[in-house]
Write a structure and sequence with these properties.
heterodimer; A: about 110 residues; six-stranded mixed β-sheet; five-stranded antiparallel β-sheet; B: about 110 residues; mainly beta; 10 strands
Chain lengths: ~110, ~110
Amino acid sequence: TQLLEQSPQFLSIQEGENLTVYCNSSSVFSSLQWYRQEPGEGPVLLVTVVTGGEVKKLKRLTFQFGDARKDSSLHITAAQPGDTGLYLCAGAGSNTGKLIFGQGTTLQVKP
Amino acid sequence: GAGVSQSPSNKVTEKGKDVELRCDPISGHTALYWYRQRLGQGLEFLIYFQGNSAPDKSGLPSDRFSAERTGESVSTLTIQRTQQEDSAVYLCASSPPPGLNEQFFGPGTRLTVL
C-alpha cells in the first residue's frame, strides 16, 4: 500500500516567517501534486512536479520533487495571512489514475 | 467556465435514513473521484470512475456506501442507513483525459447525521 506522510501536521507562525512542509513516502510516484484547501471549499491544485529533482516556483512558494521521486517539499518564503489553509500533497502511481493523498498540513499565519 | 458542482451543499439527516449526494463534473473530464473528509483531516479516497472502465471501489468503507456514474457525466454517492460516524464533508473531483491526473474539486457536501 502506498502511503504519503506529511509533516508537520500543524504549523502556526507569524507573518513574515519562512516554513517548509514535507511529504515523504517509501514508494515511487510518477508525479506529485500539491493542493491548498481553504475552509468550506474544495482543494485547489497549486502545482504538479514530474521529474526527479524538479523545482517549481509559484511566487513565494517553492516546490521540490526528490531525486528518487519518493518525496517532496513545499517552502513558503515570508508567509502571509492569506497563505493560511490546509496543504495537501498527492502522489500519482504510474499504472493507476488514483491519487494517494497525504493527511495534510494545517498552516496558520498570524498577522 | 463551469467547475465541478455538488449538491446539496449541506445535508442534515437522521440516523438510519438514506442520503444521495450528487456531483456534476467538468464537461469532458473522463475521471471522477469521491472523497470523504472529516473535520480538520485529510482526504479519504472512496471511489474512482474512469471512462467506461469498472470503477475502483476499494475505498468504500462499508456496503452501505455505493456510487454510480452515468457515462462521463453526473455521479451520485448513496449512503444507506446513515450512522453518526458518516458525518463529514464529501468531496467530488474530476480529472481530464489521461495525463497527470490533476484533480479539480467541487465545494463538497457537508453531511451531518443526527
